[in-house]
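Entry type: protein chain
Record version: 2
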Amino acid sequence: MMEPRISIVTLGVDDLDRAVRFYQEMGLTRHRGITDGVAFFQMGGMILSLFPRADLAKDAGIENRPTGFAGIALAYNTRSDAEVDEVIAAAKAAGGRIVKKPERAFWGGYAGYFADTEGHLWEVAHNPGFPIDGEGRIALPQ
């Protein structure tokens, strides 16, 4: 039986150095101990991993073929609308592409989307109904 958690999110990338630079410019700190062909970033209680796309496909035993929309978006929730704008601006300055400018969302919050340098989609959102504690952990409403 699985416990309700995600340990590591691994993004397959075509250019590891470029992807590492992007996430470092976004304020993340790369783990210095494990750097040979992979990059790890501690993100609260989980880890973001960057791994060469071809190697990731090989490890999983599947064909590495280009895709369009992968049907997945990572999400970064903020404590305010202003922080949404700040994160989106930081992504653009770091070389990311703004996919959707922040705006009022149908669910009552404020959100926008960017793609990192490898095209991975991130939603940046402020949802007042999903509280974030002092350690950065988000919770579903009661």
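Comment: The mean pLDDT is 94.
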